[in-house]
Amino acid sequence: MIPVPGYAITTPYGRRGPYWSCDEDAYGNGIHTGADYAAPAGTPVVAARPGRVVYCSHGSSFGYHQLEVLPGDGTRDFYAHMPSRAVADGAQVAAGQRLGVVGSEGNATGPHLHFERHSVATGGWSCAVVRDPAPSISYQPAGGSGGAGAGGETEDEEMPKFSRTKLTKPVNVTEASWKSLTWDSVPNGDAGTEGWAAVEIGPSTYTATLVVKVSASGEAMRTRFIEQQKKGDTWEPSETYPGVEHVLTSGETGVSDTRTQHVPADTRLVAQVWLPEGGTVESAELDVLYF
Fold first, then answer.
1. Residue 265 phi/psi, 5° resolution?
2. What HEC string does 6-37 produce?
3. Which superfamily, per CATH, for 16-158?
4. What is the share, in percent, of the chain residues with pLDDT greater than 90?
5. For the chain, N or C: smaller number of CB within 10 Å?
6. How far apart are CA 213 and CA 273, in angstroms?
7. Domain range annotation of the chain
8. Is the sign of the CA dihedral 180, 185, 189, 193 positive or negative?
9. What are the CA-CA distances from residue 242 to residues 69, 120, 245, 272, 290 (Å)?
């Protein structure tokens, strides 16, 4: 299935040029390792094949919101240069389901989706794993089900609701104390509110993925979620999940924490960070899918 419905390939797999390093010829021209779809920024990107979503990082040249879809046949489809993601890590998606939008993150001369097919289901990126993505692009759901409708959009009733909140300004964290993250940007959905340290999540089954970048010292940091229930005019903690420990590296550290849970109405979710010797949360993003 075409991953950018309504648009054609602008740079095909295997085209040679001096910009690429895989399988270089005698003149130093390597091959393009995927298929590019140039389109206006914000154009929907959909899953070419069904499978499980896995966030990945195959180098900053591909941007910072890379993801793969694993269909379960020993291969994987790789999506790059998107400025955001519309699905949570571990989610199962149908062919034609929205994954994100076209952007130009990383090494890109303009907005486009870089789409690759890999010959392995897990592992890092290398020239040895890239394959012609034509079989993924030509995939069609059995009986035409589970894919996009007219115009490439999926049926609303098949799509989970999605929200994204962001912290874009650095925030100091006191030594060895939990810091609730206050969101200053709400680019997607209506579950979050600028200036809130929470997002509304009930009643639903939800999957929340917290992505945080910090500058701190020490051996490990922690992240956790707290669910709060509305009691009259106040919000009281109803569930505090154990903190997840992440190894701190020198310089800036990026971590990801995912939770899945079913909650009743009038519930909201708080995300927190703990730094052993204090430090700074440089940025954070909370993506929530509601089923």
1. -65, 165
2. CCCCCECCCCEECCCCECCCCCCCEECCCEEE
3. Glucose Permease (Domain IIA) (2.70.70.10)
4. 59
5. C
6. 10
7. 16-158, 161-290
8. positive
9. 29, 34, 9, 11, 22
Give 5-58 pLDDT, tens digit per residue: 888 888 999 999 888 989 998 888 999 999 999 988 888 999 999 999 999 999
Secondary structure of 177-241 in HEC code, one letter for each residue: CEEECCCCEEEECCCECCCCCCEECCCEEEEEEEEEEEEECCCEEEEEEEEEEEECCEEEEEEEC
Residue located via tokens 């939770």: 259
Confirm whether pTM is higher than 0.85. Answer: no
Fold topology of 161-290:
Jelly Rolls (2.60.120)
Using one digit for the tens of pLDDT, what is the confidence trace for 165-216? 999 999 999 999 999 999 999 988 888 899 999 999 888 777 787 889 999 9
In degrees rounded to 5, what are phi and psi of residue 172? -80, 145
Q: What is the pLDDT of residues 58-82, one digit of tens each?
A: 999 999 999 999 999 999 999 999 9
Do residues 245 and 175 make contact, with C-beta atoms less than 8 angstroms apart?
A: no
Assigned token pair, 80 = 């790059």
Going by C-alpha positions, the residue among 114, 77, 85, 117 that lies closest to residue 101 is: 85
As a whole number, the mean pLDDT across the chain is 87
Residue position matching structure tokens 């098949």: 158
Q: What angle do CA 201, 205, 206 make, to 5 degrees?
A: 60
